[in-house]
Amino acid sequence: MIRRFVIGALAVALPAGAATPLPPFPATRAVLDGYVRSGRVPGAVAAIGVGDQPTVFLAAGRIAEETAAAPAGPDSLWRIYSMTKPVTAVAAMILIEEGKLRLDQPVADFIPAFATMRVQDNPQTLESHPAKAQITIRHLLTHTAGLGYSIVTKGPLGEAYTKQGLVPFALDERTEPRLRTTRPASLEAFANRAAKLPLVAEPGTRWSYSIGLDVMARVVEVAGGMPFDRFVQTRIFAPLGMTSTFFTVPRSEIGRFATTYGYFGDISVPLDRADHSVFLIRPSFPYGGSGLVSSARDYDRFAHMLQDEGTLDGVRILKPETARLMMSNLLPPGVAFAAPDGTGNPLPAGGGYGAGGLVVTTDRPNGARKGTYGWAGIGGTFFSVDPVRHRRVVVMVNYLPPGKWPLQRDVAAALNPELKAFP
Length: 423
Fold this sequence. Notes:
The chain is 26% helix and 18% strand. The protein is built from 11 helices and 18 strands. It is globular, with a radius of gyration of 21 Å.
């Protein structure tokens, strides 16, 4: 039996007979309340966990600006965009653990079109030369394959990505019909088309934000023997009880689906309303880099599994050694992580990069501790997991660009001192 307590904007789920729940993190709650009160966001939700104690959910505001919109809460639905990447990384790590993939195995073993890649001579041209090395699974997982990304790649190659429909991303109902006229209709076609364009750098030599996790989704299909969306549903979501995570939001769930807002200067406008959302329509294919909608409760379960090194509530998704490998620095020798340009994500540069997310390699004063793993979404969502000290945080909002407000910095400044009370 689960007892539920709601105190103001605080919702706590407490198993009957369990220990006293965590405190209400008043400073962090004040940050969320302040963002809503100032009109920067209509609503926000944070999930905070320490060890295996019941998760604390802090919620403020509503899921849209309309006064009739539902209050934001643990089960509200948010576009998590690039927080899909760690999910795809877990799918890859499952297959690595099972021996169906190897970290340094050539991608061409699964997608033959990647056997003979070429590299741009310079960013101002599509002229290219043969790549010196094969792209590997490690490279896809760590954005070191040399692949581009329509949201960051500039010049002739960026234009070619758009022209070829290599835009594995859904924004709103206005732009989606145009994108679908050129976007491939399957992961297989997407990956094969991506292999025809030159790379921005030699494989394994530079961190460059990319479609690597989208290509990785195709590798998961081939190595896993089933469609990518079915693989993550049967091997990750269902076992973890993640019942509110979707590539396509059912129309029955519109009432808890947030609206995305876009900022133009200091004016915000609805970009993707819940009742007309592009996420109500089946995507061209399941985007392994940006395609998911989820709730704070669901993504907290995913983060909790990582915090506990692959197991949650007695269900094992990964072995501890596999989870530790995923959240370790997997960058090739001599390559450093650099915060992605052009996305607006307030992510710190430096440190390392694991499978689908950054890795903190040294303690940061008043900040993340060594061993922390996490990532963010272009809609303002972010999460981090500290498997050493057994704590985690997930924050859900939906506004673009995410760099408009320093929410990640403000939450960290409030939450880190509050977490110091725990060993």
